[in-house]
Amino acid sequence: MNIIEFPNLKYPKKQLYDYQLNHPNYKENLHFKSGHNLNTANECLYYDLTDKDCEVANEFVKSINCDDYKFTKVLAGGHMPPHIDPQRTGVLMIPITDEPSPIVFYDNFNKEIFSHKYVCPTLINAKKKHGVPKVKFDRVFLQINYFQPWSVLQKLRIV
Question: At 35, which helix (H) or strand (E)?
Fold first, then answer.
């Protein structure tokens, strides 16, 4: 199992969306820019917002006993190439936009093995190859980062 859904986790979706909307500090995703030699602004339209001055996000993240997060967006027409996260082991994906494009998990040959449509906050195993091949509408998430082994994260209780 590479995902764990948290359907009962409530979060301030509108306030999070409003905070990040048109935020001037969104930057190209450095992982893809350097590790994959992509110009993320032109090739995959993938951006990160790592500012931690959003009081609503700070309160929410603290309420679930975490402190490391960022906002991410992939603009319509973009994609997230298949990858394994270099540092974090798990990511609690909090959907900020409605009906975000699904995440796809791949085998070592980039063959799709599993696809997941986000309908609620979902913890993903960041050490399994994953990506988002097609983004039809802007795809915005609050991502909460974890660094414990997946075996520990599978026992995580978030309510």
Answer: helix 30-35
Among 101, 113, 5, 122, residue whose Cα is nearest residue 44: 101
Q: Which one, of 144, 139, 141, lies nearest residue 156 by Cα?
A: 144
Question: Per-residue pLDDT tens for 98-129?
Answer: 999 999 999 999 999 999 999 999 999 999 99
Nearest residue to 132 via CA among 73, 86, 87: 73
pTM: 0.93
Phi and psi, residue 48, nearest 5° = -120, 145
pLDDT tens digits along 16-42: 999 999 999 999 887 777 666 667 777
Q: Which residue has the tokens 């999070």?
A: 16
Q: Give the separation between CA 141 and CA 96, rounded to whole angstroms.
A: 5
Residue 70 in contact with residue 49, Cβ under 8 Å?
yes
Q: Tell me the pairing of strands 122-125 and 130-132.
A: unpaired
- Per-residue pLDDT, averaged over 50-60, amounts to 95
Residue 18 amino acid letter: D
Structure tokens at 81: 């190439």
Distances (CA, A) of 74 to 1, 4, 55, 153: 25, 22, 23, 26
